[in-house]
């Protein structure tokens, strides 16, 4: 179980460069409940506020994940993420990952320069910084979540594939998202029609195969993740929408 929960939170936030963020409004809050088998394993949340960063309009997004209940008794996770996302480009300007996972801690801050495809990575624990060459339109772990929500209906047709590069910790990871169909998903609020999306993930040590994660997002203008399931080498993790507020468009359950 060690590291599996925190990796699931990473994938949960990642599953998600858009030119328009018009379907998201300031004050939106999404809360999720995470289960490992029959255990209530933890919670995750995303809060979005409109602000400015370096004089330009941005969304400030805070992501938070933690273990709860019996899982927390033997593996404590407190994961904090922050991202300033340029409202006009959908690209991140500043990103924070500050986590405690069992006895492991990490605190990174990243400043993105999309004009020359570089970033400045600062390790706050070691008090050092370095400049790293990246690729065009790189996302951070939080902004990638909004990549999916900013796509147009034409880009989310069944069979379509979207590729993106995501900066996680101190390394760049390529991801591929494929829309494989639509399904009605039952939730605590009722049943809602969703797009079924499968991201390709690394197989072997944690996940059962390259397509061991499935994401269901509301098939409407919100494109809100309703549920996520990850098939692990041992058991599975599931996350489902537990509460929401200030969503721009009504969710039609």
Automatic annotation (TrEMBL):
Protein's name in the database: ATP-dependent exonuclease
Superkingdom, taxonomy of origin: Bacteria
Keyword list, A-Z: Exonuclease, Hydrolase, Nuclease
GO MF annotations in UniProt: exonuclease activity
Taxonomic lineage from the root: Bacteria, Pseudomonadati, Bacteroidota, Flavobacteriia, Flavobacteriales
UniProt KW Nuclease keyword: yes
